[in-house]
Write a structure and sequence with these properties.
- This protein is α+β, with helices and mostly antiparallel strands and 371 residues long.
- The chain is built from 10 helices and 13 strands.
- The chain has a 6-stranded mixed sheet with strand order 5-4-6-3-1-13, sandwiched between helices.
- Helix 4 packs antiparallel against helix 5 and helix 7 packs antiparallel against helix 8.
- The chain starts with a helix and ends with a strand.
- The relative contact order is 0.17.
- Bound molecules: alpha-D-galactopyranose (GLA).
- Alpha-D-galactopyranose (GLA) binds next to helix 5.
């Protein structure tokens, strides 16, 4: 068992006084390329990170949710705006799908950084869904569990996200990225052997609160829908570069990002399969430029990180996740990651930005039942 899984199990024993019937965990994710394409029916390429949220659950008693990290318990059957809305939402969405998971108790522990754009919410949803599926013997497949988690997020929690984060958390494999076709919902693992080519995946959490994220996210979605309507296509997935001539202003900029980003994901997968990390890196930089200029979801901090990474020899760097703050990633020669962090810390201090935080992740396994 991993450390977080042990902590969830111990918290269960301590809080509820018996052994859990199931222990499961699920990872956060970073997205390598393909941003805001998921809700346009397009392509994304996330990978799971080696930070997880674990849950220990059983049916022998109360209906409580306990967080070892926050050290507090919440009733299963009450509405409030705490972390507990995620597991509650999953139980609700399971019920909506015809699987009743109304009586259980569960303890949670995790180490996915929160509110950073690394999908701690998808991790808690995926861990809960997998644990409840095992506990009640529903036998729901992982893709359907991911859609149930997305429904929890969209309709119970009330955040209009796409399918990427839940799919990544449930379906990623260690040492691989996951190519998801967000229309057909087909997913395929793509080998990501960074170690073998001497590269590391550095994540810079700018710790800029993603305050405008909800409004900004919804505005982007709405503009994409307007653009698709003008072009007479079901979603921007179906638009081509030639179609862009028929758009202008905001719709043109947003659609141009989506159309070019989808093409970049396809080329990025070809590059990864050919182990051509130089080509892959160029696509990352191009993706960042498109998010900065056309989709307008970057911040001065994220832009600074990407430029500093470039100056320090990163083959590729870009913001990852929804944007408006949060994290950026860089591929770095493994020996130079410390230099990048230092250069970045100095530059951020010099420009009066907040202090960033750095992580190095390896592409990790998706959700698992471990006990
Ligand atoms: C958030 C959403 C995802 C996706 C990204 C942007 O992480 O939850 O569904 O839209 O933003 O790529």
């Amino acid at each position: 068992m991993r450390e977080t899984e042990k902590r969830a199990r111990e918290a269960y024993v301590e809080k509820f006084g018996g052994e859990p019937e199931v222990v499961a965990s699920a990872p956060g994710r970073i997205n390598l390329i393909g941003e805001h394409t998921d809700y346009n029916g397009g392509f994304v390429l996330p990978c799971a990170i080696d930070r997880r949220i674990a849950v220990a659950a059983g049916r022998d008693g109360g209906e409580l949710l306990y967080s070892a990290d926050f050290e507090h318990a919440r009733p299963l059957h009450r509405e409030d705006d705490s972390w507990a809305k995620y597991p509650r939402g999953v139980a609700w969405a399971l019920r909506e799908a015809g699987h009743e998971a109304d009586s259980f108790q569960a303890a949670f522990a995790g180490d996915v950084p929160r509110a950073s754009g690394l999908s701690s919410s998808a991790a808690i949803e995926a861990a809960t869904a997998l644990a409840l599926d095992d506990l009640f013997g529903f036998g729901v497949d992982r893709k359907s569990l991911a859609r149930i988690c997305q429904r929890a997020e969209n309709e119970y929690v009330g955040v209009g996200s796409g399918i990427m984060d839940q799919y990544a958390s449930l379906l990623c494999e260690a040492g691989s990225a996951l190519l998801i076709d967000c229309r057909s919902l087909e997913a395929a693992s793509v080998p990501l052997d960074l170690e073998g080519v001497g590269l590391s995946l550095v994540v810079c959490d700018t710790r800029v609160e993603r305050g405008l994220a909800d409004t900004g996210y919804n505005d982007r979605r709405a503009a994409c829908e307007r653009a698709a309507e003008t072009l007479g296509v079901e979603a921007l997935r179906d638009a081509t570069e030639g179609d862009l001539d028929r758009l202008s202003g905001e719709e043109l900029r947003r659609a141009r990002h989506i159309v070019t980003e989808n093409a970049r994901v396809t080329r990025a997968v070809e590059a990864l399969r050919a182990r051509d990390f130089e080509a892959f890196g160029h696509l990352m930089y191009a993706s960042h430029g498109s998010m900065r200029d056309d989709y307008e979801i970057s911040t001065p901090e994220l832009d600074a990180f990407v430029e500093i990474a470039r100056d320090n020899g990163a083959p590729g760097a870009r913001l990852t996740g929804a944007g408006f703050g949060g994290c950026a990633i860089a591929l770095m020669p493994s020996g130079n990651t410390g230099t990048l962090a230092e250069a970045c810390q100095q530059a951020f201090a010099g420009r009066g930005f907040g202090e960033p935080e750095f992580y190095e992740f390896v592409p990790a396994a998706g959700a698992e039942v471990v006990g």
